[in-house]
Amino acid sequence: MANFKVNYREDTALFQNLWVKSWLVIFIVTMLVLPFLLSRYQLSILDEMGIAVIGALGLNLLIGYTGQISLGHGAFVAIGAYTSGLLAGTLGVPFIISLPLSGMTAALLSLIVGVPSLRLKGLYLALGTLAFGFIIEYILFHWDLTRGDTGMAVPKIGTEGFFIETERQFFYLIMFFAAVATLVAKNLARTKIGRSFVAIRDRDIAAEAMGISLSKYKIMAFAVAAFYAGVAGSLMAYYQKWIVPGNFDITLSIAYIAMIVLGGMGTVLGSILGAILITGIPHAIVYLTDALRGTYPNLSNLIVDLKLGIFGLVIVLTLLLEPQGLVGIYRRIKVYWKTWPFKY
Amino acid sequence: MAVMNQDKSLQLEIKDLSMSFGGIKAIRNVSISVQAGEIYSIIGPNGAGKTTIFNCISGIYKAQQGSIRFEDRELLGVKPDRIAQMGVARAFQNIALFKGMTVLDNLMSARVHLMKYGLLGAALYLGACQREEVQNRDAVEDVIEFLDLQSVRKSPVSSLSYGLQKRVELARALAMKPKILLVDEPVSGMNLEEREDMARYIIDINEEMEITVVLIEHDMGLVMDLSDRVTVLNFGTKIAEGTPGEVSSNPEVVKAYLGDEQ
Ligand SMILES: Nc1ncnc2c1ncn2[C@@H]1O[C@H](COP(=O)(O)OP(=O)(O)O)[C@@H](O)[C@H]1O
Ligand SMILES: [Mg+2]
What we know:
The complex is a heterodimer.
Chain A: H1 8-11, H2 18-37, H3 40-65, H4 73-91, H5 95-109, H6 111-114, H7 122-142, E1 152-153, E2 157-159, E3 162-164, H8 167-189, H9 192-202, H10 204-209, H11 214-240, E4 242-243, H12 250-263, H13 268-293, H14 297-305, H15 307-321, H16 326-339
Antiparallel strand pairs in A: 1-4, 2-3
Chain B: E1 10-21, E2 24-35, E3 39-43, H1 50-58, E4 65-70, E5 73-74, H2 80-85, E6 88-91, H3 103-109, H4 119-124, H5 128-146, H6 162-175, E7 180-184, H7 192-208, E8 212-216, H8 220-226, E9 229-234, E10 237-242, H9 244-248, H10 251-261
Parallel strand pairs in B: 3-8, 3-9, 6-7, 7-8
Antiparallel strand pairs in B: 1-2, 1-4, 4-5, 9-10
């Protein structure tokens, strides 16, 4: 397809040609009709994926784009979830206000790891963020307000007469925010913000010598990542209707890291693909076990036992096949189709 | 040789600068004065302390002693990004490009400080953000044209040849819209043709864009052709200063160079 750019505005446009635009329309229409075609269980998987996409986009901006390691992403999801839980549960704050406030609270608290990140690098930063995660978990367990292990109920979204409560309604709500989150990440990536992030990742000394403030953009990267996590946490809280600290332990942080590594570091698409895969694998294993139970009862028991092993195996195999993750595979397929039927 | 501008004002003044790493004295009491609009070269054997001087000017190293004044402002103790924003640009000796980016994005990265829109504007990509992005893209395209990088504009820098990467390094510094350009060994490792091109670019930057150039270079031919004035450094100490002609006939300089090559 001819792709001549008339001006720089077009050259920097997000959706560059008719081809991309058509796919976008098809995608949106599919998303609109999907809730009418899928079961509640299937929709719940997609809802889970949508929330994971938001969290993964944030973490990828921090680790993939800016090169700052964080093992505490789950803690910021927790902060978002509990901010919403407390605001809505005890103060009756409506969703439209509690959602952005959850993001902002997480962003504000990210200063606790963002500021030290100016001095800590690599392993030390990883340990710092890990410690932050443990501290948040400890607080959630022991603070009166969050009610520890018992957990907290989160009120419904909506007012008299209209509530968002069905799986279908949640699907539209979550997908709307996942789409906005994706668009914002794309925008950040193509502006001076994204360039500053990548410059710091690739050569921090040169970035500084080009006039990019390391402290400003590192702190910003932590804040943006935390904001995304906070929003994901808020949605998760409303969606689950009940939150306990155990939802947000180190496993969640590691799952998010697995998403961006597997999906593709430093790409928006990679965050999405990774979130879908990591959220999907446990469900796929359950599905597989059910399907095999009739014919091979022993095998299906084995699969349950090996669940974690299979999970790890999929990750390792994907990375062996393509170190750039799913995005790398996607790019290869794209090149293949673009050049088909010519084999170059 | 550069056409000296009408105003021969002092632009960069380094006084009694000393810097040591542990026990090693990399530079000792070096003083250099660069006039606005000239091409000023610093030469000397490997390890003489040339790059260290640039790092002190850029704020990457903090000299223990002395002063560096740029347009009457003290640079010593100022952070590198602030110094860059004052108009001091740097092309590194060891290529320090952002290797995960295209040529275009590398150059756009040098203009972050010239764009004023905020985080929210970027998130929505509206109004001021779009306008400034397009304006700065326009300016970057001028640099791309100036240094003949049109054909590799969208290529990842890591896919370019060494010579081209060196040119992108220069282009990125130029994209910052600097008042003074610090260029560290721009032709090292290049073939003859690439050297001649690079010399031409540096002269054009100096004359057409009226940017002061401070040049570190080993290639004596290049230095003699381009420079208005030259400082010679040996073991961290300045041993001579003057026009290329004066410097090359200085016996101490000859000795230092022969001593280095033996
Ligand atoms: N970061 C550093 N740490 C320790 N020693 C350094 C550092 N940078 C430069 N030096 C030392 O300072 C001296 C001058 O180095 P440099 O300025 O790079 O020389 P030139 O650029 O003239 O070849 C050398 O002895 C070098 O080993
Ligand atoms: Mg050097």
